């Protein structure tokens, strides 16, 4: 049996690695880090890991050379043997991850790589390339189920539950419209769908909404031969649309036509017949579809095969009159090119001569006028003498 003194002598001394583990343990306890915590940080670039996977054995050999060079404090420069450009690219990328400087020297076929320690170099990465490759593979396997998650299918379009009268006649009332369409609406009940009522509402968009509302009482549903399902209401409105279109055209109740639509409980049109299979007619699409640019010819040009439709007059509640001013053609005045005299003294003499000629002409005119006045005076004097 060993004595206490001999047991103390036989115990191992704590080396540098032991001291490092003790420091790490104290730091983990201070920061309350679990012992099962694993560091998944990868100190290598994706480019380095990709080239490592292409040639694992050769890359591990070069990595060992890097680690031996990094751990030697006296070594400042390491020269590799000549190699192809693809292998030199791996050495440059690995040197960047280690914090070393690298340089290719000499021309082909003797071109090789040299690496150097600089002040930015601290130490080699604690993880090897093989360890980081396994960590990256595990992380990629965890991301695969999320990437392969099924795509949620878009909800189906809501069935039509109303008729929409576009561009109604000015001054049209709900009572007048209900009276005109009473016979057409009664045809829905005759078809067997009696548990459905219709409400008429004016929308802020200057349109009239005729919405089918299913009955909520059990007695009305029981007496109806056809259940008021959304599909049954849509089919009934499809058949009702043609009859309502004829009545609206006959009595000139609306000029924009009749379309099927779906309106929610707030009477907001979320789908129109013209928008089936495309985006909803709410928001800016609805505003653009009712814009005045279509009615004024700003939209798609009509074909020559429909001259009557293209020449139809515009019937709106309010009409703005304006006078188009005719623009007179502007006549261009062509100016004669100016003659530039090279000798300014000659030009000045010419101007003086012209001025003298003008003064001479004025003096001649004034002289002729004075002669005419004198002659006139003499004639008047002779006349006075005769008298």
Short description:
This protein has helices at residues 4-10, 16-31, 46-54, 56-71, 85-98, 129-147, 174-190, 218-223, 230-251, 284-289, 292-295, 307-310, 344-386, and strands at 77-79, 101-105, 112-116, 162-166, 196-202, 207-214, 258-263, 269-272.
Description:
With 387 residues, the chain is α+β, with helices and mostly antiparallel strands. About 11% of the residues have low confidence. The chain contains 13 helices and 8 strands. The strands form 2 sheets. The chain has a 5-stranded antiparallel sheet, with helices on one face. The protein has a 3-stranded antiparallel sheet with strand order 1-3-2, covered by helices on one side. Strand 5 and strand 6 form a beta hairpin. The protein is flat, with a radius of gyration of 51 Å.
């Amino acid at each position: 049996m060993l004595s206490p003194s001999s047991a103390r002598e036989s115990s191992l001394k704590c080396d540098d690695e032991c001291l490092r583990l003790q420091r790490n343990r104290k730091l983990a306890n201070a920061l309350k880090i679990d012992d099962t915590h694993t560091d998944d940080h990868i100190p290598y670039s994706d480019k380095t890991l990709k080239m490592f996977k292409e040639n694992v054995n050769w890359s591990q050999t070069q990595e060992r050379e890097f680690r031996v060079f990094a751990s030697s404090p006296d070594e400042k420069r390491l020269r590799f043997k000549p190699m192809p450009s693809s292998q030199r690219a791996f050495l440059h990328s690995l040197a960047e991850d280690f914090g070393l400087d690298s340089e290719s020297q000499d021309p082909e076929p003797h071109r090789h790589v040299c690496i150097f320690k600089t002040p930015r170099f601290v130490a080699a990465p604690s993880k090897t390339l093989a360890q980081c490759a396994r960590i990256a593979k595990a992380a990629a396997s965890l991301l695969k189920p999320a990437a392969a998650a099924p795509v949620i299918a878009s909800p189906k379009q809501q069935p039509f539950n109303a008729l929409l009268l576009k561009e109604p006649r000015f001054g049209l009332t709900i009572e007048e419209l209900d009276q005109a369409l009473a016979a057409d609406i009664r045809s829905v009940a005759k078809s067997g769908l009696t548990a459905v009522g219709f409400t008429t509402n004016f929308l802020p968009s200057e349109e009239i909404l005729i919405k089918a509302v299913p009955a909520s009482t059990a007695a009305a549903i029981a007496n109806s031969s056809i259940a008021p399902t959304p599909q049954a209401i849509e089919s009934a409105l499809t058949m009702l649309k043609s009859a309502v279109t004829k009545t609206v055209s006959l009595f000139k109740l609306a000029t924009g036509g009749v379309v099927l639509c779906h309106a929610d409980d707030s009477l907001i049109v979320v789908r129109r017949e013209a928008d089936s299979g495309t985006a909803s007619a709410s928001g800016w699409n609805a505003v653009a579809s009712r814009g005045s640019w279509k009615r004024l010819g700003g939209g798609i040009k009509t074909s020559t095969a429909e001259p009557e439709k293209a020449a139809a007059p515009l019937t709106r509640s309010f009409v703005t009159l304006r006078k188009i001013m005719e623009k007179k053609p502007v006549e261009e005045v062509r100016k004669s090119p100016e003659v530039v005299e090279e000798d300014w003294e000659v030009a000045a003499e010419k101007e003086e001569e012209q001025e003298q000629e003008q003064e001479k002409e004025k003096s001649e005119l004034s002289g002729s006028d004075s002669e005419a006045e004198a002659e006139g005076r003499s004639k008047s004097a002779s006349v006075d003498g005769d008298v």
